[in-house]
Design a protein that fits this description.
This protein is α/β, with parallel strands linked by helices. The protein is built from 15 helices and seven strands.
């Protein structure tokens, strides 16, 4: 699985060699600059900040005898923390190693801290001695529509740093959608019910919103890297900015809509949440049963069939929690060894955002008609319009990202402007043929031509589309390190 942190996307190249033109051009990179593990530091800081601030808020709830808020806050603080410790221990395989100090810190819920220290030590020691063993990694670099194969030597230090980065990406997603999202929803609901804002509660809400946005950003980048695993993906700062605005507006408007609805109809919000959770939880399993596939055996070789099913259930639970609040950007395939489907489902993307917009509109409308007297000094129609505009702006920035900022947009067979052009042409033809008295073409056919589950030509037929075949060269390909 190709996972690369944002700071890894652009690397300096030294000791470059190029093969002759008779067999195509191969760029050989002898040494790469090792980048600092900024993603590891950021995930650790967010984890510690949210944990500490939530602990202080729990102390305030205990002093004021707010038992309900105290219980839920502790739950949303401890559950993701425990899952993060288990995830880090599982990825680094510490149970079979003699590391009692590290395991003790995991018991104290300080596992991310010691892992961050280990990653920083690896980074500062990198380059001080020559690597005895290296791994060859081959990627295709896209530059102005041309493809240039790149072959890199990756040392043991860079491999270990990549393991830390990949582990913390998983923990960031777990923290964001199993801890931060319910925590943000709870604290915003408590603020509205108590009709005042605690400074420590406001600080926790800000931290959780940042954590959720970062987790959604990781999901988006991860989806790109998995789908285009053979390519060197370079995400530019403008693309990151566009994704941050897209994800931030999407999550903020979604959480606000749920909280406002819960203040008006608290009994029904549980039904809405459970229906969303059950739908997205069972969706991958229904697709698995429809395909009549077999469970992947590459999750962990030492797992029994029951253990594999438990792990897959936890993965689908995380997938469902992500989709309750925002688009997950990936689709699960329980038969694939990476558990991720590589195909880009444009139809599913369109259906998700259309359905979510309608759901938010219904929730906000119901709140408008059943709201309490607390909102008598709030311009309710303006608030409804603002929330709908925020979600529409999120969709707009998503379209801008796919049209102008996606790092592999040149590989798309269809893009946003093709869809808009097709819709406009379809409407024009309907008007002309309607005046002529002829039957107009089916709109569903035209839309399917654009929003079908198409794959880039390079992924559908690599031997015919690539000017250079990487598989023709011997050597082990390591695709989990280089981005």
């Amino acid at each position: 699985m190709c996972e690369v942190a944002p700071e890894e996307q652009e690397s300096e190249i030294t000791d470059v060699e190029a093969s002759g033109p008779e067999n195509g051009v191969m760029l050989v990179v002898r040494h790469r600059q090792v980048h600092p593990p900024l993603s590891v530091v950021l995930a650790t800081v967010l984890y510690l900040a949210e944990f500490v601030v939530a602990g202080v808020l729990c102390s305030n709830y205990h002093k004021s005898d707010d038992v309900v808020w105290l219980g839920f806050t502790i739950t949303f603080m401890l559950v993701p923390a425990v899952l993060i410790q288990l995830t880090l221990t599982f990825i680094h395989r510490d149970l079979g190693r003699d590391r009692p100090c590290v395991l003790f810190l995991h018991l104290l819920l300080l596992g991310p801290l010691i892992r961050c220290v280990e990653a920083l030590l690896l980074y500062f020691k990198a380059g001080k001695k020559e690597e005895p063993y290296v791994t060859i990694s081959r990627k295709i670099h896209l530059k102005k529509g041309t493809k240039l194969p790149i072959e890199c030597e990756i040392g043991q230090t860079e491999r270990n740093l990549a393991t830390h980065r990949n582990a913390f990406k998983r923990t960031a997603v777990i923290q964001a959608f199993l801890g931060s999202t319910p925590q943000l929803t709870l604290q915003l609901y408590a603020t509205i019910q108590e009709k005042y804002v605690l400074p420590i509660r406001l600080a926790l809400m800000i931290i959780t919103l940042i954590s959720i946005t970062y987790g959604a950003l990781v999901c988006s980048v991860l989806a790109i890297q998995i789908r285009y695993d053979d390519y060197k993906v370079r995400v530019r700062p403008v693309a990151y900015l566009c994704m941050i605005i897209w994800r931030g507006l999407e999550i903020a408007s979604r959480v606000t809509a749920l909280v406002l609805f819960s203040t008006a109809l608290p009994e029904w919000v549980i039904l809405v949440g459970m229906l969303n959770l059950l739908f997205f939880f069972f969706l991958p399993w229904v697709e698995f049963w429809a395909r009549k596939g077999s469970l992947t055996k590459d999750v962990e070789k030492d797992f029994s069939k029951l253990g594999t099913i438990i792990v897959l259930c936890m993965v689908t639970l995380l997938y469902a929690c992500i989709n309750i609040f925002c688009w997950s950007a990936v689709q699960l395939d329980l038969t694939h060894r990476e558990l991720i489907e590589r195909r880009q489902h444009w139809v599913r993307l369109a259906l998700y955002y259309c359905g979510r917009f309608i759901e938010n509109f219904v929730l906000i409308t119901l709140w408008y008609f059943f709201k309490s007297d607390f909102y008598e000094y709030v311009c309710a129609p303006l608030l409804v319009v603002q929330l709908l505009v925020c979600y529409s702006m999120a969709v707009l920035f998503m379209l801008v990202f796919y049209q102008f900022c996606h790092p592999c947009r040149r590989l798309f067979k269809y893009n946003v402007h093709d869809c808009l052009r097709c819709i406009c042409c379809c409407k024009g033809r309907e008007g002309e043929e309607g005046r002529r008295g002829t039957m107009p073409p089916s709109y569903s056919t035209t839309a399917t031509m654009v929003l079908a589950q198409e794959e880039p030509l390079e992924l559908l037929d690599p031997p015919n589309s690539h000017p250079y075949d990487l598989n023709s060269h011997p050597g082990e390909q390591e695709t989990a390190i280089l981005g």
